[in-house]
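Hello,

Our lab assistant flagged a job as stuck in the queue for most of the afternoon. It eventually completed. Since we weren't sure the result was trustworthy after the delay, we are filing this so someone can double-check. Below is the sequence as submitted and the structure that was eventually returned. Let us know if re-running is recommended.
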Amino acid sequence: MAASSVTIRVDSDIKEGASRIAEYFGFDLSSVTRAFYKQMIRENRIPLNLSNPEPNAESLESIREADELIAAGGPGYSSAAEMFKAMGL
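-- returned structure --
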């Protein structure tokens, strides 16, 4: 199998940060890139987790409000339809 080159452009701070992480695990960026491509082929997908695992400030505030309502004995609903009915919608 013939080898090919891949050139990518990234900000130097991104490259330096990624290099530090790769080197911590004993790899260089080329080895990590090859492993990533092989994983793509093996899994037939792009193996990235693009989720935001931490709730944002608005969600955290909503969770806090819901906890306060529950603690105060506020109304509960068994379904969204029941909630909307109680709201007159």
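-- support follow-up --
The delay was a queue issue, not a problem with the job. The result is valid. The chain has a mean pLDDT of 91. Residues 11 and 77 are 50 Å apart (CA to CA).
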